[in-house]
Amino acid sequence: MKQIYGNYTEEDFKVWKLLYERQIQNLPAAASKAHLKGLEKCNFIADEIPHFEDTNEILHKETGWRLAVVPGIVPDYTFFELMSNRRFPATTWLRKMKELDYLEEPDMFHDVFAHVPLLTNQSFVNFLEEISKIGLQYVGNDYAIELLARVYWFSVEFGLIRENGELRIYGAGILSSAGETKFCLTDEPPHYEFEVREIMSKSFRKDVFQDRYYVIDSYEQLYSSIPEIKEVIAEMVSGGEPVVA
After folding, report:
1. How many domains does the chain have?
2. Quick check: is 243 in a domain?
3. Is 123 known to be catalytic?
4. pLDDT attached to residue 158
5. What is the pLDDT of residue 240?
6. Which of 1, 79, 157, 168 is 20 to 30 A from 218 via CA?
7. What is the C-alpha to C-alpha distance for residues 239 and 223, in angstroms, rounded to an integer?
8. Among the options 32, 81, 115, 129, which is catalytic?
């Protein structure tokens, strides 16, 4: 599949512009430094939907990654196989005006505006590549994939990072939501240190703001957690421990 730029409608450009302008105002005081730096490198602007060919040139130069066009949520094997080969699955369609504030399935704004900037950070993409290799080992084992999905959810999608003593956002699920961007940094939801075994014991919901967030100190910490992720999944799968909420 490929991005067919000529298929974008006037509404698509309006949606991108509205979402971009609304969220870009929140990011300087909320997003991680790596995400902000990545946004600059990717040259995203409000008036133009990103061209994947241009974005791929930038990503490949920075970290060796590229975008792979997908129609939507893909099967586990496809998802892990792509990322283990440094290709991030991304949709090319945009939500409708009536769906600005909530969308059940990730669209291009989520995949590109929220995810892509961090693909310029080497430690972060190293984590993505290695966690995907783990996923490939367990495709077909729903129990193991659920454990891995929880790590991915509470880091790549809804993770926070501590920078200069302040909480900042790197999770794309938050960065594509103006409401959750503000909510997650307040004192209302609890914030916990990033601990693999603890995260694997917690379920999550997709239709509400998260009721907890896990905090890392660096992207190197994420990458260095890979051996523990492998160990805990292997232990829990072989021991038959239940996946608890």
Report:
1. 1
2. no
3. no
4. 98
5. 59
6. 79
7. 25
8. 115
Instruction: Single out the catalytic residue among 32, 35, 81, 110.
Output: 110
The residue type found at 154 is F
244 is a domain residue: no
Q: Quick check: helix, strand or coil at residue 180?
A: helix
* Residues 146, 243 contacting (CB under 8 angstroms): yes
Alpha helices for the chain (secondary structure H): 10-24, 33-42, 52-62, 76-84, 108, 122-138, 142-152, 172-175, 178-183, 196-200, 219-224, 226-239
pLDDT at residue 245, rounded to an integer: 43
Active-site residue, 84 included: no
pLDDT recorded at residue 101: 76
- 83 domain-assigned: yes
Which position among 129, 157, 177, 225 bears the catalytic label?
Answer: 157
Which of 32, 155, 176, 177 does the annotation list as catalytic? 176
pTM of the model: 0.94
- Looking at the domain assignment, is residue 18 inside a domain? yes
Say whether 115 is catalytic: yes
Q: CATH number for the domain including 228?
A: 1.10.800.10
User: Domain range holding 169?
Assistant: 5-238
Share of the chain above pLDDT 90, in %: 91
Q: What SS3 class is residue 71?
A: coil
Find the radius of gyration of the CA atoms of the chain. Answer: 17
The amino acid at residue 185 is L
Beta bridge partners of 66: 87
